[in-house]
Amino acid sequence: MTDAATEAAWTALKAAADPVARIVDQFAADPERLSRMSVEAAGLYLDLSKQSWTRAGFDAALALARVRQVEARRAHLFGGAAVNLTEGRAVLHPALRAAPGADYHALGEPVSAEVDAVRADMAAYAEAVRSGAETGGTGKAFKALVHVGIGGSDLGPRVVWDALRPLSPTVDLRFVANIDPRDMAEALTGLDPETTLVVVVSKTFTTQETLANADAAKAWLAAALTPEQLRKHFIGVTAAPDKAGAFGCGRTFAFRDWVGGRYSLWSAVSLSCAIGLGWDAFEAFLGGARAMDQHFVDAPLEKNAPVLLALAQVFNVDGLGRHARTVAPYAHALRRLPSFLQQLEMESNGKRVHRDGSPVSHGTCPVVFGEPGTNGQHAFFQQIHQGPETVPAEFVIVAKTHGNETESPLWANALAQGQALMLGKTTEAARAELLASGSGDAEADRLQTHKTFPGNRPSTAIVMDRLTPATLGALIALYEHKTFVEGVIWDVNSFDQWGVELGKVLAKAILKDVAAGGPSDELDPSTAALMTRLLG
Ligand code: F6P
User: Is the CB of 267 under 6 A from ligand 1?
Assistant: First the structure.
C-alpha cells in the first residue's frame, strides 16, 4: 500500500512526464540544464541532460525521492537494520569495503573486526600464492586458478577480472559457472592438476551447478593427487563454511548472510581476482567503492549520482512507460558489465509485490540488456534508433582504454549515438539527402520514411578517464546504490530472490522422472514430449 503523499508525488511525476517534449529543446528552455543534470562522483562524470525529463520532470522525480524518504532508508541500510525484510537480514556490502577499523553493525552485532580479519587472511593467501610461498600438494607453485561459481558468485568476479587483468597475467584465471560439462571441460583444457588451484564460491554451498562443477573439478584433481595433497588445491568461499569443509575444501574463506549474493564481489567471493591481480589492486578496487559510498552518503539528492541515475530510470519506467534499458560500455574491458547489471538490477528489483506483500502499484525493474560499444551498433542499435518503442540507453565511456592516448575513434561513436538518439532525422531532412544524392522524386518518396529517425530518445553518459581498480569499484558501487534507491522508490525488497526457487524445484522433479526412465503421468503434454525427445 502507498500513502497519500507518495501517491501525490507519483501523480506529479506522471503529470510532468511529457513524451512530446523534445529533449534538445530543453537546453534552451533551461540554460542551467547541463550543470543541473550532471554530477562528478568518485572519479566518474555522469551526464543525464539527454534524458527525457524537463526541468519540471527532474524536480518531480527529486520530490518523489524525498517523499519516499531515500535518505532515511539509506541510513537504515548503512546502519545494519533488517532491510532485507523477507529474510530478516541486514544488507551491509558497504562494510566489506570499509576502511580498516570501521564500526559497522549488522542487526546490532559488530561486524567490522571480522571483515578486517577475513580481508587480512585473503591478502596473506593471495600474496603467498602469487609469490609461490603457498604451493600445491606436490610442492609446485600455482600457475592457474579455476573459479567455480554462478550468479553473484561468478558475474562480479568475472567483470573485475576482465576489466583489470593484464594482457599477460602471471596467473591463468578461468571461470566455470554452467552445469553444462562443456564449461568445465573448456576451463580445464591445458591445465596441470599439480599447478592448478580450484576456488569453489557459493554463499549457500547448495547450488546444484556449483556443487556439480566442484565435484568434477575434485575428480580431475584426484586423478593426479592424493587426498591430502588435493586439499591444498581445493578451497571454498562461502557463508556456510561447515558445508564447504564437509565437501572437502582444504580451507575456507567465509562471509556472512548479510552479504547479498549479487552484492558479494567485495568479499572473499573475489579471492581469485585478488590472487590474479595482486592485493594492492584489490585494495584499490575496494577504495573506489568506498569513495562512492561516501559520495552516496554525503551528497544532496539533487547532486547524488546513484540517486539521479535511479530517478532517470524511474522517470522512464513510470513516467513514460519504457520497460527496457540498454547498457553499452564503450570499453572492451567492460564487456561483461551488462550481464552483471542484469543480475544486480533484475534479480534485485524484478518484483511484483511491495515490501508489505501487496501488489505493486507502479512499475519496477525494466529489462536490462546490452553489449559493449561499438559492437552493439552493429547488432541491435537499429531497433534503438528506429524501433516503435523508446529504449533508454546508458553509455559507460572510458577515455583511455588501452595506454595513454584518448581513444577518440571509440568514444566518438558513443557521443554520436547519444546525439543521434536525441536529434534523430526528420523525413524532410531524409528526403533532402536523397534528392541531393541524386534520387529522383519517386525514389525519395519511396525511401524517405525508411530513412527517418524519430529521435527524442534518451541516454545517459557515465564517463571516466581510465578504467582502474578505483574507478571500477566506484562504478559498481554506483550501480549497487542506484539499484537500492530504485527499490526504495518502488517500495520493493531489493535483497531477496524468491523468483529463482520454483525452477530449481521443478528441475529436481524432472530429473526424478528422468531417473525413473521417462515422464510421469502428471507432467503436461508439452514437457513430457520434450523429455521423451531429449531422452532419445
Ligand atoms: O539462484 C539465484 C542465486 O541464489 C543468486 O542470487 C546467487 O548469486 C546464485 O544463485 C548463486 O548462489 P550461491 O552463491 O549460494 O551458490
Answer: no
